[in-house]
Amino acid sequence: MGLAHRSAAPPELPPHHQLVAELRALRKAGLPRVRQTPHPGLAAAATAAGLPAGPEEPAAGIERLLRAAVHWLDGSAPPPDGRPAPADAGPVGELARAAAHSFGLVGAGSPVAGERRKAAAAVFGVTTESFRHRQERQVIDRLADAVLALAAAGVTPDGAAPARNTPARVPAFPARMTDPPVHYDTTAPAGPAAHPRIEVHLSPIELLRGIDVLVSSENTYLEMSKIFRNTVSGALRRAAAVRDETNAVVDDPLARELRDWLAVHNRSGLQVPPGTVVPTGPGALAQRGVRRVLHAAVAVPRRDGNGYEVCTRTVVDAVSAVFRVAAGERDAYDPPLSSLCFPVLGAGRGALEPERAARWLRWAVEEELRADPRWTVHLVTRTPALVAVLRGAGQG
Questions:
Q1: 223-251: pLDDT as tens digits
Q2: Nearest Cα residue to 317 out of 155, 194, 159
Q3: Same domain, 218 and 346
Q4: Could you tell me if 49 and 122 lie in one domain?
């Protein structure tokens, strides 16, 4: 029998501004006092995420939800059962670390709001007053985003099964799986097959023509690779650069537009949550028929400064965000955008094992096409051994 797709309407989630207000109040009061003040928005989000929701349990559910949200920001796996992660397994990114300090989720956690704010400010190397006026607002805003993401996905932070109200639009991430899920659906064509909306290319991504949207893999600071580097990001930056008659670069549009986006969103020098996707124009890639470049922030810098980390959940989140951003821009173009191209996200400097990254990419794309089949998707690699994986051989 085929898997039954959930058709129930998703639960009503609290608005973002309500979560921001409740998080601000909770940051000031501290987690030990979470039982003394009602937090209906956070309690509703915890319930939607499948966390404890009984009369005596909302406080525990809220704390576990916040711990999961911090790790969601960081792109790492949440600690099991809401227990504090050991020091060497704590969050790496600045946003996640500052959020953990702000809410006393690091070690024992100080009950004094001023001490927690001072520790969070030290993450960014700024004064507590500067942090209060700038970075703290960003931390709470992004933490509210993460809470909503967990609630919408219906994913429990201890790796249990998705909540019964998981909306069909958001693919639930099976936290303990090394391979993507398999859909045993008798209504689907048999075999590895050839999805009519997926094409696979053995090619450098920058050489493809006639594809509306190319996806670039970036780090969580949205800093593109150097223009001379042999990475997807570096190759797209190089191909999009505008040059004069001597072939000298006179404009670096992709990197410039990313810097502009960071400035407009008050993120200059700060990380964005893993899985964030930011659109830019194509620069000189327009000559190859490209109309947009979507930059997926999937690589989290390691704490020791030596390379990056990417988890498969971030790949799934980024693919979902690419479809969402592209759908939002689709009808602004004439003719509408209709094709997307993904490299194997996380398989380069992100250090995901390439075959595993390719399997998860293929699965995530198929999940999105189930929800929005209007797109033709191109998967591209320069590694011959990955072609069969991207084609879906051996899956299903």
A1: 999 999 889 999 999 999 999 999 999 99
A2: 155
A3: yes
A4: yes
Angle between the N-to-C axes of helices 16-29 and 113-124, in degrees from 0 to 180, rounded to the nearest 10: 110
Angstrom distance (rounded) from CA 340 to CA 211 = 6
Taking only the tens place, the pLDDT of each residue in 113-130 is 888 899 888 888 888 888
Q: How many domains does the chain have?
A: 2
Contact 308, 349 (CB under 8 A): yes
Neighbours of 369 (CB within 10 A): 18
Q: Is 200 helix (H, G, I), strand (E, B) or coil?
A: strand
Residues 213, 131 share a domain: no
Total Cβ atoms within 10 A of residue 182: 10
State the Cα–Cα distance between residues 395 and 112, nearest whole angstrom: 53
Confidence band of 288 (pLDDT split at 50, 70, 90): very high
Q: Could you tell me where the DSSP H helices lie in the chain? A: 16-29, 40-48, 58-74, 94-102, 113-124, 128-133, 135-153, 232-240, 253-264, 312-330, 354-371, 387-390
CB 221 within 8 A of CB 255: no
Looking at the fold, whether 135 and 217 belong to one and the same domain comes out as no
User: Could you list the residue range(s) of the whole structural domain that residue 38 is in?
Assistant: 16-153
Closest CA to 63 of 29, 14, 13, 12: 29
Q: Are residues 282 and 143 in the same domain?
A: no
3-state secondary structure of 251: strand
CATH number for the domain that contains residue 207: 3.40.220.10
Q: Is residue 11 part of a domain?
A: no
Q: What is the pTM for the complete model shown? A: 0.59
Flag whether pLDDT at 204 surpasses 90: yes
